[in-house]
Amino acid sequence: MKAYVDKDACISCGLCPSLCPEVFEMEDDGKAGVTTDEVPEGAIDSAQEAEQSCPVNAISVS
């Protein structure tokens, strides 16, 4: 399973790294980014929660 952040859509709210710090972080450009190639098994639920909670639908996890 992989996660992706659409940098053009991201509004830098910081919700995704607060919900799933194993996968997401705020990067130097102020936008969220993905820290791993594959979502770790133990972080799948929180990564999907971040996807569903993103206010601008900038995250996809599949």
Automatic annotation (TrEMBL):
Top-level taxon: Bacteria
Protein name as catalogued: Ferredoxin
Keywords associated with the record: Electron transport, Iron, Iron-sulfur, Metal-binding, Transport
Free-text function comment from the UniProt entry: Ferredoxins are iron-sulfur proteins that transfer electrons in a wide variety of metabolic reactions.
Pfam family, one: Fer4_15
Species in which this protein is naturally found: Clostridium rhizosphaerae
InterPro entries named among the record's database cross-references: 3Fe4S_ferredoxin (IPR001080), 4Fe4S_Fe-S-bd (IPR017896), Fe-S_cluster_ET (IPR051269)
4Fe-4S ferredoxin-type domain ranges (all copies): 1-29
